[in-house]
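EI: anyone free to look at a 99-residue chain?
SC: sure, send it
EI:
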Amino acid sequence: MIEEKNIGSSLEEFLEEEGHLEEARQIAAKRVLAWQLQQAMESQHLNKVEMAKRMQTSRSQLDRLLDPDNDKVQLDTLNRAAAIVGKRLKIELVDNIPR
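SC: here you go
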């Protein structure tokens, strides 16, 4: 019996070959941020109306922020939302891992 650790390429390699890796990373990051914000709101029993009021924005703007598929969000909006739920936004540059 032959044991093979990896058959084919990884998803990351496939996305890179197809030219979609960066887009996938951006979507993943936004989905994580939206989920984390939603979880923080729920833990503090903050509904969307109250959150929007505290952010001094509209409910529809908050819906766009919480939409995991909408990656067109400004940093100041994310910072304001994070501060309201007692969090801070952390963004960093990391080195590319050579293949």
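EI: Residues 11 and 17 are 10 Å apart (CA to CA).
SC: 👍
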